[in-house]
Design goal:
Layout (H helix, E strand, L loop, with lengths): L2 E2 L1 H12 L11 E7 L8 E2 L8 E2 L3 E4 L4 E5 L3 E2 L9 E9 L7 E13 L6 E2 L5 E4 L1
Length: 132
């Protein structure tokens, strides 16, 4: 992922540098976008045609300068059903399966058009959040 959202940056700063309460997410979900989100949120998340966010499963963190967090197992979305999802150009990590807060987002290295019956998979080690 290339960018933390303003929500995430505020959460981190409150946790590290104040005595304010910062509630840590307990699960993380990957969502897909047909129009780019930004650090303030927004974008156009896919909806309908059997689309649903997918839980990330185990995330592993390793390295220093950069430090990298990545998915330990493949993330697989259900097949598009009843219609197309369109051209998927961005992915985001959320703190809830629906609604919730967008935590981080990035453009995919290659946009992919998902038509009826197609499945989008993110292989293990390919969903990266990097801090330098």
């Amino acid at each position: 992922m290339s960018s933390f959202t303003d929500y995430t940056e505020n959460l981190v700063l409150n946790f590290l540098l104040t005595a304010n309460t910062a509630t840590r997410p307990t699960a993380w979900y990957v969502g897909l976008f047909t129009a780019a989100p930004s650090d303030t949120g927004g974008g156009t998340e896919v909806s309908g045609n059997a689309y649903a966010r997918v839980v990330t499963g185990t995330i592993t963190v390793s390295g220093t300068s950069p430090t990298n967090a990545t998915n330990a197992a493949a993330i697989e979305f259900a097949a598009a059903s009843g219609g197309n999802w369109g051209s998927i150009g961005w992915a985001g990590i959320f703190d809830a399966s629906t609604s919730g807060n967008l935590l981080a987002w990035a453009a995919l290295s290659t946009a992919r058009t998902i038509n009826d019956g197609d499945v989008l998979r993110i292989p293990a080690g390919d969903l990266d959040v990097t801090l330098t």
